[in-house]
UniProtKB/TrEMBL annotation:
Keywords: Membrane, Transmembrane, Transmembrane helix
Protein name, as recorded: LrgB family protein
TM ranges: 6-30, 42-60, 66-87, 99-125, 158-178, 214-238
Top-level taxon of the source organism: Bacteria
Intracellular or extracellular location(s): Membrane
Chief site of localization: membrane
Species, as recorded: Pseudoroseomonas ludipueritiae
Stored PANTHER family: PLASTIDAL GLYCOLATE_GLYCERATE TRANSLOCATOR 1, CHLOROPLASTIC, PUTATIVE SEROTONIN TRANSPORTER
Length: 242
């Protein structure tokens, strides 16, 4: 075995392997429960896996920081997984190009509304400034949201939790809300889910309809880029005026 592979194996055997194994087992159990529930939206596998992991860590008395130190390889894969969404986007490029202008406007307005709701609710409850800043990027995918929150003076760890909860709730309730509203166009459904529920919503959209998944991936990526551009600027402007 080459020296670099040997060193990687020694590192995995010493610390991260148990955390990675626990994460994979929780995910497999969540997928099994999702199938047993006949793929009901309420049985979201991501949410179930998080609950299983949380209960397991609490029962074993393991701190989250210790767990994350071992499971950081899974966190690292968030970036490549997001970039990999470019493949279905490329395959559906003709349909995307024809609807690009209204899609960008919808994503921009949706991201602004999501940020305004998070900030407005936190401010109305009298939350400290760092809490308000942590909630502002709640509709952006986790890696970007944590960076935005840190730049705004928020708490990246809190932002990660809020983003996860927002994604799970959006993936579960979003399709129900759009069914109730009579929205049948898969492009519109994908844009809404991707803007509001980012990665978790996109995974759900891809499992239901490819066109919805493609537009959801587009919304998730553009919302992250656009929010990273306008939110820090607007936040600094509001703080200077207030």
């Amino acid at each position: 075995m080459p020296d670099d592979l040997a060193s990687i194996w020694v590192y995995l055997a010493r610390e991260p392997l148990s955390a990675l194994t626990l994460t994979l087992l929780a995910w497999l159990a969540a997928l099994r429960l999702h199938r047993m529930a006949r793929y009901h939206p309420l049985a979201n596998p991501v949410l179930i896996a998080v609950l299983i992991l949380a209960l397991g860590l609490m029962a074993a008395g393991i701190e989250y920081r210790a767990y994350f130190q071992g499971a950081q390889f899974v966190h690292f894969l968030l970036g490549p997984a997001t970039v990999a969404l470019a493949i279905p986007l490329h395959r559906q490029w003709h349909g995307l190009r024809n609807a690009m202008a209204p899609a960008v406007i919808s994503i921009l307005l949706g991201g602004m509304l999501a940020a305004a709701l998070g900030v407005g609710i936190a401010a109305a409850l009298g939350s400290p400034a760092e809490i308000v800043a942590s909630l502002a990027p709640r509709s952006v995918t986790t890696p970007v949201a944590m960076g935005i929150a840190e730049r705004l003076g928020g708490l990246p760890s809190l932002t990660a939790v809020v983003v996860l909860c927002s994604g799970a709730v959006g993936a579960v309730l979003g399709p129900m809300a759009m069914d109730w509203a009579g929205i049948r166009d898969w492009r519109a459904r994908g844009l809404a889910i991707g803007t509001a529920a980012h990665g978790i919503g996109t995974a759900r959209a891809l499992s239901v309809n490819m066109q919805a998944g493609v537009f959801s991936g587009l919304a998730m990526g553009l919302n992250a880029v656009l929010t990273a551009l306008w939110l820090p600027f607007l936040w600094s402007l509001l703080r200077s005026l207030g």
